[in-house]
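name: query_chain
kind: protein
chains: 1
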Amino acid sequence: MKTRRLLGVLMTAALVLLFFAGCHTENSEQTETTDPAQTSQRSDIYRFEDYENSEVFNIKKVDLSENYARRCVSYNFDYLSDGLKIEGYLSIPLSFIETQKPGKCILFNRGGNEHLGELEDETTAIVCSVFDRIVIASQYRGGGSSQGKDEYGGDDLHDVIKLIDLCENYFSFVDMDDFCAVGISRGGVMTYPAARQDKRIRRVICISAESDLIDAYETRDDMKLVLLNAIGCSPEEDPAEYEKRSAMYWADEIKVPVLLIHSRYDELVSYRQSEELYEKLKDSTDCTMISYEDDKHCVIHPEDYQTIRDWLNQK
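structure:
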């Protein structure tokens, strides 16, 4: 239990370090937006409250700190996935609202399990402020106020895919041409399988991400109980359940560009997982890896922010 609490603190701190250092200040003033007329056509495609329906509901604007309120607007909402009410977050750059043109989007997959590492009110705002893209994220079932059970990449993967469906079919402000999925730590277990099966994902960034749950089970005592509770069995009892969640076993089926970021001495997710995955991915797709000679978990060093932005925006 002490290890899990420490992991939660580390993940929250890492997320702030990951994104805060790269925040720009050029979008420093929030512009006034006009409420849409009550007609069949919206005058503001980014007024998220107007998208409430039977699939997306309980939409609430998030009160952001001044630092982020000058850069983006954020919402908390619920949506249906397999009949379950799932909590989600959305952040939109103010610059996009000004142009009223559909914008590029990042699907952000958090780390942790159940309530450990769950999204906080400013998590997507942090990501949005740095990468200047729309950011949408799921709390996953079993986390936050979401219904259901966390299955660590089982049926809870549907919660991630459903957000892509919503972006394509409901949210007219999302440009689907360059849709990117970002996963940190456990988020790799959600991101890699999503990219494997959903061709709407055009790019993948994984940071300190898990790609081999059999290795995690065998090498980390603190993960054994987590995985047994989430998956319902051990690798010995049902290896297929672990392999379907682990990109290491089907890396050749990922065909989109992948950017891997990992510290060599990461004690929470072994650097070896990204290193070995990189060797497999580079044979089937465009794969880039950034390594650090430290033990940080889920951290991007500030000097690489522009490199990552350039990678995101390359054709």
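note: The first helix runs from residue 2 to 20.
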